[in-house]
């Protein structure tokens, strides 16, 4: 089959990130040095409060902590004796190591060694810190000093017409690429999601366009598969179908906006955060501009049920790596998005040995 048309330049190619790889890195080195260029969420904002929090991204162990005006992300390693700082505590705005009490300020600089309180502290006693952003209820970081790519966009988050929901992160034993591709796959609704929004009698996938965009991919898919049993009990799919607009922010985030009848919109930002080559932490802010007077729990539960239906499949797929070489798996017309996604990951430089 023919490849999707290239209609806009893609994500600029980032330079390989230099420096040592994380200990026990599960990625091929060349892949890690590319993936480390991008922003990924590593925690919910609401979970980073008055104590340090551990996280892991691309096999790098991280610690997050918040002071009155700063949120810091650093490698989770005390410079003294290799103790995770996430085991420590926050005192008067400093992160205090659990072992010998070294204190680190919000810049990661060691500011006190309790065993020698009057000794000068060398400036190089400073943690390796990383850029941090908070957006859509999530804490994001990047392991490169200068992040590349387009930061995933979710304008509805700040739109008062929309109700926000933030499920707890979902841990999935799969590569981030497999999860994200599955989120954009439109041919599985009738089978995997037959108990939620899919219709077992409606497996047909109409043709649809896939466009390259500066952030990655833009896909507009119209079908007669609905998405949500609304609170009033009416099924969603109308005669003219339901439009799903996917915007993929390479490498591992996709915003889906589902255009339901009567101007109702469901928006999901699927962020497959690569913990390691075969472990993904899914963060998925949800928004809706309908049923906004209804409680959030059923809305969250319904979408988490769908994510768990997908989870069972992506955990079982093999090879665990998303094959970048298009010859490795068979493709059908409905897979236009997957084909373009794999091509774009390949264009970023991710190799045949996507993971090790
Ligand atoms: S290991 Fe952290 S202060 Fe000694
Ligand atoms: Fe799915």
Describe this structure in words.
This protein folds into 2 domains: 41-141, Rieske [2Fe-2S] iron-sulphur domain (Rieske Iron-sulfur Protein); 155-348, Naphthalene 1,2-dioxygenase Alpha Subunit, Chain A, domain 1 (Alpha-Beta Complex). A hairpin with a 2-residue loop joins strand 5 (89-91) and strand 6 (94-96). The model is unreliable at 1-8 (pLDDT under 50). The protein has helices at 29-35, 176-184, 189-192, 296-316, 336-348, and strands spanning 40-44, 53-57, 60-66, 71-75, 89-91, 94-96, 103-104, 110-112, 129-130, 132-135, 138-141, 163-165, 170-172, 210-213, 216-223, 242-249, 253-259, 265-276, 279-283, 286-288. The protein is 15% helix and 27% strand. FE2/S2 (inorganic) cluster (FES) is lined by residues 78, 80-81, 83, 97, 99-102.
């Amino acid at each position: 089959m023919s490849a999707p048309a290239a209609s806009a330049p893609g994500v600029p190619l980032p330079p390989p990130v230099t420096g040592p790889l994380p200990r026990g890195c599960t990625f091929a080195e060349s892949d890690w040095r590319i993936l480390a260029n991008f922003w990924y969420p590593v925690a919910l904002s609401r979970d980073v409060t008055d104590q340090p929090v551990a996280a892991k991204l691309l096999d790098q162990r991280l610690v997050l902590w918040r002071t009155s005006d700063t949120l810091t992300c650093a490698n989770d390693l005390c410079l003294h004796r290799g103790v995770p700082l996430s085991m420590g505590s926050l005192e008067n705005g400093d992160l205090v190591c659990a072992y010998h009490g070294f204190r680190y300020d919000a810049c990661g600089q060691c500011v006190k060694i309790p065993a020698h309180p009057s000794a000068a502290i060398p400036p190089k006693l400073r943690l390796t810190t990383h850029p941090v952003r908070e957006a859509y209820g999530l804490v994001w970081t990047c392991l490169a000093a200068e992040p590349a790519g387009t930061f995933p966009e979710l304008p509805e988050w700040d739109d008062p017409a929309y109700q926000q929901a933030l499920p707890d992160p979902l841990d999935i034993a799969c590569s981030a690429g497999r999860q994200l591709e599955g989120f954009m796959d439109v041919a599985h609704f009738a089978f995997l999601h037959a108990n939620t929004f899919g219709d077992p009698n409606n497996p047909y996938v109409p043709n649809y366009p896939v466009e390259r965009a500066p952030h990655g991919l833009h896909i507009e898919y119209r079908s007669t598969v609905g998405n949500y049993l609304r609170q009033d009990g009416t099924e969603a799919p109308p005669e003219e179908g339901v439009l799903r607009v996917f915007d993929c922010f390479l490498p591992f985030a996709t915003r889906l906006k589902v255009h339901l009848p009567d101007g109702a919109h469901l928006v999901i930002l699927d962020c497959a955060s690569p913990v390691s080559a075969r472990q993904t932490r899914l963060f998925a802010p949800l928004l809706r501009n309908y049923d906004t007077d209804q409680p959030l729990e059923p809305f969250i539960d319904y979408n988490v049920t769908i994510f768990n239906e997908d989870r069972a499949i992506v955990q079982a797929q093999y090879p665990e790596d998303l094959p970048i070489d298009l010859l490795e798996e068979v493709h059908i017309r409905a897979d236009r998005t997957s084909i373009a996604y794999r091509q774009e990951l390949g264009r970023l430089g991710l190799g045949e040995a996507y993971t090790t």
